[in-house]
Write a structure and sequence with these properties.
The complex is a heterodimer of chains A (about 220) and B (about 475).
Chain A: E1 6-14, H1 21-24, H2 44-47, E2 79-82, H3 94-102, E3 106-109, H4 114-122, E4 126-129, H5 132-144, E5 149-153, E6 158-160, E7 166-168, H6 173-181, H7 185-190, H8 193-206
Parallel strand pairs in A: 1-2, 2-3, 3-4
Antiparallel strand pairs in A: 1-5, 5-6, 6-7
Chain B: H1 11-17, E1 20-23, E2 29-32, E3 35-38, H2 44-52, E4 63-66, H3 83-99, E5 102-104, H4 114-121, E6 129-132, E7 146-149, H5 152-161, E8 163-166, E9 170-177, H6 186-197, E10 205-210, H7 212-215, H8 219-227, E11 236-238, H9 243-249, H10 258-268, E12 281-286, E13 293-295, E14 303-305, H11 322-332, E15 347-350, H12 358-368, E16 379-382, H13 387-395, H14 398-405, E17 408-409, E18 430-433, E19 448-451, H15 454-463
Parallel strand pairs in B: 3-4, 3-6, 4-5, 6-7, 9-10, 9-12, 10-11, 15-16, 15-18, 16-17, 18-19
Antiparallel strand pairs in B: 1-2, 2-8, 13-14
Classes of the chains: A alpha/beta (about 220), B alpha/beta (about 475).
């Protein structure tokens, strides 16, 4: 897994509530069998005026100048300031891959949908939960000040604004540990192979039907 | 009852506890996974990861694979026209072959939507942990299983270790008390629940659906309710096991053999919350108050009764939601205060993992019988949930009812629920759909989705606009 420790990055506000994973990466791009290359289609239906499809020449697209990511001042943004229940809907991890591939390293929101939240940690994108009024404040400041950057420190669990205002955030200890070190979850779990094997032996006795194959 | 001095356990607590392999001090749990359902969209990168790391699947007998999202629903004799979709399905076939995973291929009679075929085959059993790289895995909770959607990294984790690293959710009870009126279905119940608690209402919870109205549902109805748990924000929804559950499971291909049946049945009947179980949150809904539902916006919580009106975002009561509501009405091209029954449709879709089972098709056919699809409807589509559902429907003559009325009768798959195949809305088109998500662009870029029950979709196809199926 990609590690996350500290970051100071340009922020961009997208404060709509309930931004779903269909909006983050529309379904036609899920036909890919790769993990990379989704960034160009991030928020495709909002970002472009023409219809998007896989394998298109991105130079031929018509960007929607009104969409926030297309404003030149936000080019190269790494921090997304988002609304409530960000990432709701489908379980597609492609949504996280698309944000990551575009260049985002963290999303700050008042809340995330559960599956999106899980997927983010697995792919090295840090989801930061802050109070709704703080997120709104950051969004307003970001709109008001060109070049507005936020500093995120995972070890300290802080978000720091350009005027040195510091906000603490909560994060699951184990996930923090994995993300700081870029640990491979599967490798960690396989170190407990003996426990899984022991569990299976007991379970085969108490519930043998769970190990049936089709009759 | 729980042990003296301790609170009893919820259904969720029981299934969770039975799958603990190890618990770390911070509460992170290694949870054993019994059943891993696999489809073509969220698995290729997981199989690739497994291969790159030189790993083998831990237990292939836990896996069942099927292609459903991309498959064409028209004649399949010539294969898949779209080369990108074709590659994804060929990749699934190759991976299943290589790793020895049971797969129902596209032309297998048993092929269908992963959340339809799991239960149909008896591959979903009470008390199991069931996962799939698909958020509608919550469907399987209807069997008293703990079932939830996962991302591709977790798909790979389950393949490699048969476990997941998890934190426990909180317990929510949603009790639907009393009986629903005639013409009110499982779909209306769950849409009314989402309307009440909102799309984030269940975030961080596992929901147990209970109450007289839930107990009265068939297994198929319970699946429709649990299916949309995720639309209420909850990764998992569950229903306690009862005789209805057990009767459904008899004689299915993956159900326990004769040798184990009695032991399994005894264990399953304990899969209900103890009387003194404690829930973190309890929501009660009066079943009799639920009317047939129609969504009007771009989130499943934007829903009302068929006899209601499109809300006015400027009304004081919607102050907190004004921006979202205004945006939704603009996208949906609807004016505030429009009666729902005046909304005219372009297309009708009956299908999806929410509503494509035999009872759904029977309910729709009962409304349609001897009537014709309105001439203003461009397309009315029925997509059965599996080859076996299709076969059963044809045995009952339902295909003829649909075809005579002017519906198209298709091959099984996800189809126009998410429009990954050729079935989709054109920009600006409006659809009455029995699916689960009315997000912007969900059924095709610029398309407008209204979520309804199968009977309500059928009635809308005949009338050309929404009608109250109870007086139709």
């Amino acid at each position: 897994m990609k590690e996350f420790t500290k970051l100071t990055g340009l922020a961009v506000p997208l404060l709509r509530a309930n931004v779903d994973t269909d909006a983050i990466i529309p379904k036609q791009f899920l036909k890919s069998i790769k993990r990379s290359g989704f960034g160009v289609n991030l928020f495709d239906e909002w970002r472009y005026k023409d219809a998007g499809f896989p394998g298109q020449d991105s130079a031929s697209r018509q960007p929607n100048p009104d969409f926030v990511l297309n404003k030149p001042r936000y080019a190269g943004a790494q921090v997304l300031i988002a609304g409530e229940n960000f990432g709701c809907g489908s379980s597609r991890e492609h949504a996280v891959w698309a944000l990551d591939d575009y260049g985002f390293r963290t999303v700050i929101a008042p809340g995330f949908a559960d599956i999106f939240n899980n997927n983010s940690f697995k792919s090295g994108l840090l989801p930061v939960v802050l109070d709704k009024h703080i997120v709104e404040q950051l969004g307003e400041e970001c709109e008001a000040v060109e070049g507005y950057s936020l500093a995120i420190d995972l070890q300290e669990q802080t978000v720091t604004t350009p005027s040195n205002e510091v906000f603490k955030f909560e994060v699951d200890e184990f996930r923090k540990h994995c993300l700081l070190n870029g640990f491979d979850d599967i490798e960690l779990t396989l170190q407990q192979r003996f426990r899984i094997e022991e569990y299976e032996v007991k379970r085969r006795q108490s519930a043998p039907w769970l190990f049936n194959t089709s009759s | 009852m729980g042990v003296s001095g301790m609170a009893g356990k919820t259904l969720y607590d029981k299934v969770w506890d039975a799958h603990l392999v190890h618990q770390q001090e911070d509460g992170t749990v290694l949870l054993y996974i019994d059943r891993h359902l696999v489809h073509e969209v969220t698995s290729p990168q997981a199989f690739e990861g497994l291969q790159l790391a030189g790993r083998q699947p831990w237990r292939t007998s836990s896996m069942l694979a099927v292609a459903d999202h991309n498959v064409p629903t028209t004649d399949r004799a010539n294969g898949i026209e779209d080369p990108v979709s074709r590659l994804q399905i060929e990749t699934l076939d190759a991976n299943c072959e290589k790793f020895g995973v049971t797969e129902f291929k596209m032309n297998d009679l048993r092929q269908g939507i992963v959340h339809v075929i799991g239960p149909e085959q008896g591959a979903t059993l009470p008390g199991m942990t069931v996962v799939c790289g698909d958020s509608h895995t919550s469907t399987h909770g209807a069997f008293g299983a703990l079932a939830f959607g996962i991302g591709t990294s977790e798909v790979e984790h389950v393949m490699a270790t048969q476990t997941l690293l998890q934190k426990k959710s909180r317990n929510m009870l949603i009790s639907v008390d009393g009986q629903v009126g005639p013409g009110v279905t499982a779909k209306d119940i769950v849409l009314a629940i989402i309307g009440k608690i909102g799309t984030a209402g269940g975030n961080g919870y596992t929901i147990e659906f209970a109450g007289e109205a839930i107990q009265a549902l068939s297994m198929e109805g319970r699946m429709s309710v649990c299916n949309m748990s995720i639309e209420a924000g909850a990764r998992a929804g569950m229903v306690a096991v009862d005789r209805t559950t057990i009767e459904y499971l008899k004689n299915r291909p993956f159900s326990p053999s004769k040798e184990h049946w009695e032991q399994a049945e005894a264990a399953w009947l304990d899969l209900q919350s103890d009387d003194d179980a404690v829930f973190d949150e309890i929501v009660r809904i009066d079943a009799a108050s639920i009317e047939p539902q129609v969504s009007w916006g771009t989130s499943p919580e934007m829903v009302t009764s068929v006899n209601g009106y499109v809300p006015d975002p400027q009304a004081d009561e919607f102050e907190a939601k004004r921006e979202g509501y205004s945006r939704a009405l603009e996208y949906m091209d609807l004016a505030a205060a429009t009666p729902i029954t005046e909304i005219k449709l372009d297309r009708v879709f009956i299908g999806s993992c929410t509503n494509s089972r035999i009872e759904d098709l029977r309910a729709a056919a009962a409304v349609i019988k001897e009537r014709k699809v309105a001439t203003s409807i461009k397309q009315a589509l029925v997509v059965p949930g599996s080859g076996l559902v299709k076969q059963q429907a044809e045995k009952e003559g339902l295909d003829k009812v649909f075809l005579d009325a002017g519906f198209e009768w298709r091959e099984p798959g996800c189809s126009m629920c998410l429009a990954m195949n050729a079935d989709r809305l054109e920009a600006g088109e409006r659809c009455a759909s029995t699916s689960n998500r009315n997000f912007e662009g969900r059924q095709g870029q610029g398309g407008r989705t209204h979520l309804v029950s199968p009977a309500m979709a059928a009635a809308a196809a005949i009338a050309g606009h929404f009608v109250d199926v109870r007086s139709f």
